[in-house]
Amino acid sequence: MVDSGNQRNEGSVDCYHVYKRMVDASLARPAQAEIQAYCWRTGNPAVCYAQVTNLSPLTLSGSANSAAVHAIAYEDARVGVTDRFGRRAGMYEMPSLAPGATGVFRVGTGNLSGTNWDGLHVVVLVDYRPPGSLAFDMLQAVSAFLTIRGDVDADCDVDIADIMQVASHWGTRSGDANYSRQYDLDGDWDIDVVDIMYAAAMWGQSC
Ligand SMILES: [Ca+2]
Ligand SMILES: [Ca+2]
Description:
4 helices, Coagulation Factor XIII, Chain A, domain 1, Immunoglobulin-like, four-stranded mixed beta sheet, 8 strands, four-stranded antiparallel beta sheet
């Protein structure tokens, strides 16, 4: 399956050539979203923040067209009877994102206990179900930058710049113009002293 199901094949096929053709066709299509994403470890799950700009002509919406942000974690090692690389995946249904609009979304990977974090990678992607289609289609996918919790400017350290960025959104909550999931470090839909403390607790740490 390629592009969330936009192209698929089943049964015994010449995998290299069939799937290479599908991947090449996918890469030739213009991206319908722009994504910047980073993730950090919170216990065993990884939590990812994706800034998504909708380049498609449709409003992306979980209720209207099943639009969602996905985080797929994989490791540089094969495990289990299927020899698979994939570990866990999580998704977050997008509330609503108009054409040309940008939003920041938070999505977790699920429990990654037993994973070697030094070999972990996360792909963040956005897909949706086009009108009249049974299959999903992908708008864009990126490799997320893995960093430490509290590094809200994603430069691999937690310093005064990160604290200042969280503090500049102090007192806001979901729905406010200045609220952003990126600075809501405990994910409880507001930015208060707890979020500042999460960043302060990681002060001085670096990747
Ligand atoms: Ca930083
Ligand atoms: Ca919070």
